[in-house]
Write a structure and sequence with these properties.
binds magnesium ion; Rossmann fold; 8 strands; alpha/beta; 219 residues; binds BIS(adenosine)-5'-pentaphosphate
Length: 219
């Protein structure tokens, strides 16, 4: 079995982080979220964090060359040598081409769902300020109120989950991601998956798609 490199794409709030975490556990390959990397840099007030924080707050795409080199540097680390589940990257055609040049993904799973579902999910999301794990106040509550089950840190509503910012993020997704999805479609690597079901049902569909492409590790 070769190196398994999977990209999970989809609108903001489509469940990329949720599915990437499930898939990472199931397939035993590490999960890398560009949004989490940026939020951690902002929290730690690094020079890079300061450079990107306004963009992230507004839901915009920041300095793409800089962001691309930071993410590619992460992938270069030993941990990702056997592959990765990448969530939130690539977001632009520039990023997709750079990723192909260095660590060409085997496939891109596209989570599909209508905007209404996103507008009903995102106001209910809680995100861990330390490890990025996601919850929601409807069906996936933490054991201890306001605290992450995994690391015990504080759970918050993300600053970019305000209604207007979600609208802006959706608009940017439509503009910037269309060429990225075309890029994967043209190279026969795009696998759309209906993301309106339960997380477990979606995971099953993703695994089925991987099996049909003979991409699952016999672990
Ligand atoms: P990023 O963090 O990637 O945000 P996003 O793409 O907007 O996606 P989200 O994390 O909001 O949603 P998700 O798809 O992960 O859904 P989740 O699993 O949490 O990026 C944030 C910002 O960083 C960008 O706006 C940009 O500024 C910057 N950035 C990031 N990457 C960049 C890049 N490559 N280049 C430049 N800038 C970049 O699920 C959402 C909610 O729904 C949760 O509450 C969850 O519990 C619930 N849920 C999930 N699945 C289900 C289900 N099946 N049924 C019911 N509820 C569900
Ligand atoms: Mg996410």
């Amino acid at each position: 079995m070769g190196v398994m490199r999977i990209v999970i794409a989809g609108k903001p709030g489509s469940g990329k982080g949720t599915q990437a975490a499930l898939l990472s556990d199931r397939m035993n390959i590490p999960h890398l979220s560009s949004g989490e990397i940026l939020r951690a840099e902002i929290r730690n007030a690094t020079a890079f964090g300061k450079e990107v924080q306004e963009y992230v707050r507004r839901g915009e795409i920041g300095p793409e060359r800089l962001i691309t080199s930071v993410i590619l540097e992460f992938i270069e680390r030993k941990k990702y040598g056997k592959g990765f589940v990448l969530d939130g990257f690539p977001r632009t055609i520039y990023q997709a081409r750079e990723l192909d040049r260095r660590f060409s993904p085997s496939l891109c799973i596209l989570l599909t769902l209508p905007d209404e579902t996103i507008f009903s999910r995102l106001p209910n999301r809680l995100t861990c300020t330390a490890c990025g794990r996601v919850y929601n106040v409807r069906e996936l509550l933490p054991e201890r109120e306001g605290r992450c089950d995994g690391c015990g840190s504080e759970l918050v509503h993300r600053i970019d989950d305000r209604h207007e910012t979600v609208e802006r993020r959706l608009e940017i997704f439509r503009e910037e991601s269309a060429p990225v999805l075309d890029h994967y479609r043209r190279s026969n690597r795009l696998v759309p998956v209906d993301a309106t079901h339960s997380p477990d049902a979606i995971l099953r569909d993703i695994i089925k798609a991987l099996e049909s492409l003979e991409l699952t590790n016999p672990v």
